[in-house]
Amino acid sequence: AKELGYASSLFERLQRLERQQRRDWQPHMLQVQYRMHPAIRAFPSRHFYGNALRDSESVQRAMRRAAGSVGGPPGVLSTENVESRVAPYVIFNLRDSKQEQAHKSKLNKPEARYVSECAEWENRKAGAAVAKGEPCATHGCSCGWGHLCGKIAVLTPYNGQVAEIKRSARRGGRDIASAFDDVATSQQLLQRGALQGASQGGQQSAQQASGRSPVSVSNVDAFQGRESDIVIYSAVRSEGRGIGFVKDRQRMNVALTRAS
């Protein structure tokens, strides 16, 4: 596809055409971003946009408010509970990380297990919020994910790792496994009888019956154009001989800018 020129966007092709025809057209970049935390915006701005990306006034106002408040940064950034606090942008280096070949794709089992553990940690925090009277807006008190339901995305460059993360979640327990299920259409749910099961209770059926999974698991390309409050990115590659298409700047930019 790259050899045939399909790796270039429409705007990149137009720029090349302008240069070939020697037209004096200058591209204009939209420099104000309206959704990312400044700590998330900093890296892509520096490495992909020549430090030209700026935070909107609404983002700057939100940063001046208390974490977890209306219009403020996410509650996970709150300083009230040190044990459940996380930074807006964190990189984890897994010492036992090991990539494997999976048919025509790749996977990394230690990373997949760690992703499941991160999800369990988020689930425990959400469960505490539900106990305090903050139920899921979609599924109510039957959903243990509370306000985090539908707001977590797990991204990876490889389809093999997508499958491995779901397998790891199933090994981790029913509550976590149900969160990683694929989103199904209402028609599919009716055919499987899931809607009937939801009326009888049960967290998994209730989540699936809404057509919305608490945690989205996807490869990076399929998630382009979407965003999520919390994004966990599994890079998979761990060998020193190279990182394959993980080094692709456009794909990396998409992966690092999906969190809102």
Structure characteristics:
260 residues, alpha/beta, three-stranded parallel beta sheet, two-stranded parallel ribbon, 11 helices, 7 strands
What's the short story on this structure?
The chain has 260 residues and is an alpha/beta fold. It contains 11 helices and 7 strands.
Verbal overview:
This protein is 40% helix and 10% strand. It has 260 residues and is of the alpha/beta class. A 3-stranded parallel sheet has the order 6-5-7. Strands 1-2 form a two-stranded parallel ribbon. α4 (109-131) packs across α5 (159-172). The model is unreliable at 183-211 (pLDDT under 50).
Present the secondary structure layout.
Blueprint: H1 10-20, E1 32-33, H2 38-48, E2 54-55, H3 57-63, E3 99-102, E4 105-108, H4 109-131, E5 152-156, H5 159-172, H6 174-179, H7 186-192, H8 194-199, H9 203-209, E6 215-219, H10 220-223, E7 230-233, H11 249-256
Parallel strand pairs: 1-2, 5-6, 5-7
Antiparallel strand pairs: 3-4
Helix pairs in contact: 4-5
Total number of β-strand segments? 7
Give the overall average pLDDT.
Answer: 77
Tell me the β content.
5-15%
Based on the structure, what is the oligomeric state of the protein chains? Answer: single chain
**Structural class, from helix and strand content?**
alpha/beta
Ranges where pLDDT stays below 50 over 5 or more residues in a row are 183-211
Radius of gyration: 21 Å
Order of helices and strands: HEHEHEEHEHHHHHEHEH
The strand line-up of the biggest sheet is: 6-5-7
* Individual helix count: 11
Helix content: 40-55%
